[in-house]
Design goal:
10 helices; Rossmann fold; about 260 residues; about 45% helix; single chain; alpha/beta; globular
């Protein structure tokens, strides 16, 4: 898979598809592009799909960032480097916060928003933040346990904890601290991009009320609730999540075609 230099850092990304609208997937705190494998495979048929490892995550080199805005600036640079003028931005958790920040600070670059397991404010329990500083190994395990619905296989939880540990305490702590400081509730009315909101019915990290708030305060937003899934809905119910995204993307494409006909 390719890498691309951004701010003197090598950013790794996976890509699928050769036609359709550009579609950029953003992972959550302490994670990597691997959480989007199911969506890349399913949606690469109808879009030019990309999933990047944010700085300091996965196979991307260099330091992570300490604010959601800083990560949004990385995504903007990613679009610049690939000569993509506008893209549909889909993010989970911290990635969803970055997507919202893109729509607020760089609206001309955003064709649409997919907000998965996220919120306009992402409060992090102080015990998690303290644990990442004082007992990262065990905190990674507890976090991973909270990422999934009750029926999730134990190996999924173990893999998620392993990914957090691979990212490391410093980057993971900075990610969660950036989430804790994120609050755009007062600005949601500024978002004009077509928006799909997806939430697992058993999400413990960003409960359904977070997604309902987004849907109530972003004009025209659609909300899809997926049963038997937690915070990692795109992994736990990857077919249902991909299907929701596909239908939404197809509706966006049809709306764009109608606009072209009118013009």
């Amino acid at each position: 898979m390719p890498t691309i230099p951004i701010s003197n850092q090598e950013i790794y990304y996976a890509a699928r598809g050769s036609h359709g609208a550009p579609l950029v997937f953003l992972h959550g705190a302490g994670d990597s592009h691997l959480v989007w494998n199911g969506q890349l495979a399913a949606l690469g048929e109808i879009a030019r799909a990309f999933a990047l490892d944010l700085p300091g995550h996965g196979r991307s080199r260099g330091a992570g960032r300490t604010t959601i805005l800083d990560y949004a600036m990385v995504v903007r640079e990613f679009l610049d480097a690939l000569q993509i003028e506008r893209a549909i931005i889909v993010g989970v958790s911290m990635g969803g916060a970055i997507a919202q920040m893109m729509a607020l600070e760089f609206p001309a670059r955003v064709l649409g928003l997919g907000l998965i397991g996220t919120g306009a404010k992402l409060r992090v329990a102080p015990a998690f933040l303290q644990g990442m500083q004082n007992d990262f190994e065990n905190t990674a395990r507890v976090l991973a346990e909270n990422f999934f619905a009750s029926a999730a296989p134990a190996e999924w939880i173990a893999q998620s904890a392993t990914q957090l540990r691979a990212t490391g305490a410093r980057v993971t702590y900075d990610d969660f601290a950036a989430c804790d400081a994120f609050d755009v509730r007062a600005r949601l009315g500024e978002i004009r991009a077509p928006t799909l909101i997806v939430c697992g019915a058993e999400d413990k990290m960003t409960p359904l009320k977070y997604s309902e708030y987004l849907a109530q305060n972003i004009a025209g937003a659609e909300l899809r609730i997926i049963e038997n899934a937690g915070h990692m809905v795109m992994l736990e119910q990857h077919a249902a999540c991909s299907d929701a995204l596909r239908k939404w993307l197809e509706a966006l494409a049809q709306a764009a075609d109608k606009m072209l006909i009118k013009e």
